[in-house]
Every structure is written in structure tokens, then in C-alpha cells.
Amino acid sequence: IPTASASEAAKFLVEDVIFKYGHIPKHIITDQGSHFNNYLMQAITKDIGIHHILSTPFHPQTNGTIERFNAKIKTQLCKLQDLNRNNWDQYLPPTIYAYNIGQHRTTKYSPYQLLYGKHPTLPFSQPQSMLQFIRSNDYYNQFRRYRSFIIQQVRKNIQQQQQLSKKRYDQHRQNIQYEIGQLVLAKPAVRNHKM
Q1: Which ranges of the chain does DSSP label H, i.e. alpha helix?
Q2: pTM of structure
Q3: How does pLDDT run across 5-36, given as a tens digit for each residue?
Q4: Which domains can be identified in the chain, with CATH numbers?
Q5: CA dihedral sign of residues 13, 18, 24, 25
Q6: Alpha-carbon 116 to chain mean position
Q7: In whole angstroms, what is the distance from residue 74 CA to residue 36 CA?
Q8: 82, 124, 138, 152: least surrounded by Cβ within 10 Å?
Q9: Nearest by Cα to 69 from 111, 17, 118
Q10: C-alpha distances in angstroms, 112 versus 25, 88, 115, 169?
């Protein structure tokens, strides 16, 4: 998005999400930046039927999935940008592309595969054999079977990863019982600056 304005954010939602993928999301989660939290976005999401959820201010954990994604992208951009740090935007499209075609540890599939139901064709990929279908719905049926298989595999892979993560976490967890009214020490959240 060239600028963080309400009109640019609304245009991105309509043109780069809805028109590009032909799908209206049931809900979107954004922070409370003025480019998301405004009358224009409220009107568009209401008219289209999207439930717009605003994350809690100064609590990025509300939108943890995106915050983790942003952290991964930020790490890669910091490695690629020049010393003067003003050209990170030039590296954003190829960095996101690499993320989208790369296999993810938890799902064991790339986001591209999960979205399109096939491996991405890369410039250095082996040419794939052309499939010929006798009936017009053969491709659709094959796609549905493949997509169903991938969804089952991803669910299984995520469950396995969650169990492993829980096991690792539980190894160091102490089950402490607190009494009502007991004083506890709370660690404040540390806010770091952006790039």
C-alpha cells in the first residue's frame, strides 16, 4: 500500500483481496490505525458483509498470526536492505513470494499449495507433464480430491506440531496455585520500535 490512508486501505481490500481472489472474507482483523478504523472502512465492510474486528490497542498479541508473519518478513527485510535502511520496500514483494512458496514447518505445505491446490511453477522447475482430461469436470474432481487430501494432512500436521509444542512447554511448566488476594509480580509488555 503506497500510503497508510483510509482510501488506500479500502482500495487494497476491494481490489487486491476481493477482486483478485474472487472471495469475500467473513471477517478481517486489523489494528486500530486510522487507515483501518474509519468511516470508509466501516461503510465498505458493512455493505459487503465483512465482520471487521479491531485488535486491542497496544496489545499486538490480539492478532498473533499476523504479528508472527510480520516478524518473519521483517527479519528477512533487515538482512536484505541497504545500510541506509530506506529501500526495504523494494525487497518486500520477493520476500513475500519466497514465504508463500516455501514449505512451512507446521503444515508441511506452502501457502501457495494450500490456496491453489498445486505446487508453484518456478522458472527453474522441471517442466510438468500436461494432463489430458476426457471430461470437463475431471480437473475439478481431481482438484477437489487433492484439496481434501491436503486439508486432512494439514490438520494432522498442525495437531502433531501442537502436541510437540505443548510437550516442550509442559516440561518447564510449574503448576502454581495462587490464593485469592495473593500479590503476584507481573512482567510488563515491552514495546519495540518498527524498522
Answers
A1: 6-11, 20-21, 39-48, 64-80, 88-101, 111-116, 138-171
A2: 0.64
A3: 899 999 999 998 899 888 899 999 988 889 99
A4: 1-54 (3.30.420.10), 61-101 (no CATH), 106-120+135-165 (no CATH)
A5: negative
A6: 15
A7: 21
A8: 124
A9: 111
A10: 18, 23, 5, 30
